[in-house]
Each structure stands twice: as C-alpha cells, then as structure tokens.
Amino acid sequence: MSDAIDAALDAIKFDTDGLVPAIAQQHDTGEVLMVAWMSRESVRITLMEGRVCYWSRSRQALWRKGDISGQTQVLKELRLDCDGDTVLLLVDQHGVACHTGRRNCFFRAWRGDQWVEIAQPLVSPQELYKAG
Amino acid sequence: MSDAIDAALDAIKFDTDGLVPAIAQQHDTGEVLMVAWMSRESVRITLMEGRVCYWSRSRQALWRKGDISGQTQVLKELRLDCDGDTVLLLVDQHGVACHTGRRNCFFRAWRGDQWVEIAQPLVSPQELYKAG
C-alpha cells in the first residue's frame, strides 16, 4: 500500500514550496467547493485515510479538513492533470466547505460590472468554529 | 467599463508573481476542464473580450486560449473565492481543453493503487497544433 502510494506521489509535480493546488469538487453534483494546497505528506494521508488533508500555508501545518469545524471531505477519487501539477479531488462534502459558512467558496460573481454575492451562509462561522 | 473592471481586479489577490490560479469549468455540465494561471492583465482581457485569456508561465506571455488550436473558451461568468486568491471561470469550451487532445486535463485517476487513464484523446495533438 505504501509503495503504491509512493508511486502515486512520484507522478505529482510539487512546486518549489513542495505544494500543488488541489480543487475539491462535490462528486455527484459537480459543484466546485474550494481550492487549497497539498504537500506530498497531505496527499499520502488523504489516500491512506480516505479523507481529505491539505497543507495550510497560513499555519504551515497539515490541515485535516473538518478537524475543527466537523465539515469533513470524504475522498471519492483523486485525479491528476496532464502536467501533473494540479490535483482534482472528487469528494463528498459534509456540511459546508467555506469558512464563511457557505456551501462553497466561490460565492462572488462578476455580474453587470460588479461583484454580486450569489450564496448566503448556511451556518454562522461562530457556530462552525465554536469547538476551536 | 474600464473603471468597473479595475474594481473587479482590486478584489483579486495576485501572488508575489502577480498570478492567481484559475479553474475553467464547463458552465452547463460542471466538468472541470483545466487549471491555469491569470495575471491582472489577463483577467482584464478576459472580462473585456468575453473570451478566456490566461498567463502562460512557461512562455511568460499572455495566452488567449485557442489562438493556435482553435479550442477557445467563451466566458459565461467569472467568480472569485472567499480569500480572493482563486478564480473560477464558467466557460463554454469549444472542442477540447487539454493539449493532449482530451476534453479535460484530469484524465488520470488513482484507482486500485495505480493511475488509470479514464479518457482518451478526441483529436490528435498534431491535428490540434498543425496551424502552430
């Protein structure tokens, strides 16, 4: 298992910071939920645990999505692009993906020459992070 | 119009290289087509022309998607994430998005401990780039 995952990791081209961008997409609806970054170790953990783990650039630490908020992402499939430098995660999102309490992070749309908020929070951030 | 676009650009947080990652998603099917990078100028061009223009890191130049291959992307909507550092482009992809001739770039899936090619080219790269 570990050898196989090493083979998976070797196909991924991490940047000079050791990271690749990763898109999380809801597997059944196609909704693009968020983009975050993964290190080699976070990809390994994600494949082994079947639950998405990112690398937090702000905290410079592994980030098991949902550890604080409970809004975990179960991995359905990991895909790699032609250049090997971007990962697509097909996931089952539990709850909301965005720290603002919205289902996904892309809630600002450029319409009629202005940014329009096209989604409202489903839960308050205070509620999400009360355990933190 | 230009002033409005300046306002759009001010909400986007470009990295130290002046770039943001941009996801292109087929607007009606939800298919994630590709990820590339945009500079401030490429976002401006995309909004003004209604056709996606990236920044090519390898060529260090503006990259109007499809100029050589004909596989253009008509912009349906530009969205911005919560942190302002990732762009989601809802597009209508003409032809294929991937330089390998596949519809999208994410054709390698990690299944049963190996990478599996889950899509085949719809057109040969030679055919795509004959005009180049």
Give a verbal description of the structure.
Two copies of one chain form a homodimer. The longest helix of chain A has 10 residues, at 40-49. Chain A is α+β, with helices and mostly antiparallel strands and 132 residues long. Chain A is 17% helix and 36% strand. The termini of chain A are far apart. The mean pLDDT of chain A is 95. In chain A, the strands form three sheets. A four-stranded mixed beta sheet of chain A has the order 2-1-6-5, with helices on one face. Chain A has a two-stranded antiparallel sheet with strand order 3-4. A two-stranded antiparallel sheet of chain A has the order 7-8. The radius of gyration of chain A is 15 Å and the shape is globular. Chain A has three helices and eight strands; from the N terminus they run H-E-E-H-E-E-E-E-E-E-H. Chain A has helices at 2-10, 40-49, 125-128, and strands at 19-26, 32-39, 53-56, 61-64, 73-80, 87-93, 108-111, 114-117. In chain A, strand 5 (73-80) and strand 6 (87-93) form a beta hairpin. The interface between A and B is large, with 40 and 40 residues.
Radius of gyration of chain A: 15 Å
N- to C-terminal separation of chain A? 33 Å
Given as residue ranges, the uncertain stretches of chain A (5+ residues, pLDDT < 50) are none
Number of helical runs of chain A?
3
The arrangement of helices and strands of chain A along the chain is HEEHEEEEEEH
Oligomer: homodimer
